[in-house]
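Re-running Phosphotyrosine protein phosphatase I domain-containing protein to confirm reproducibility after the cluster update. Everything else is unchanged from the original entry.
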Amino acid sequence: MKFLFICKANVGRSQMAEAIFNSLTKVHVASSAGLNPPTHWEGEKLSKTKHVAPCMLEIGINVSEKISKRLTEPMVKESDRVVVVGEKEDWPIFLKEFVKLTYWDIVDPGDGDRELHITVRDQIREKVVGLVKELEK
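Result of re-run:
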């Protein structure tokens, strides 16, 4: 199955979810995108983040070369399942109408400190592990 993880900017939560998911399964594949990445982040590598890349490296996953991407309708249509990690606001119609959509209410760590990023990473990891276990049934 093809999964798509979405958050606001595709700099933190959705990138974490994608990387953790892809590290746990070789049968399924995930990608990620942001609803509204700030222009200064679009196309930028996560190595520029203060906490995201380092906190992922702590669990053995290197996301430093990952790039922030803006969500498009084809991304959603090409996915078997979509998981939105974050706010339920400003969703485009094509996302709202997608049948196989899951919503995880996980706070945006944004400019938060290292501890907040670790907390968010661990919440996402717990959700992703559960998702992968569900797929293996």
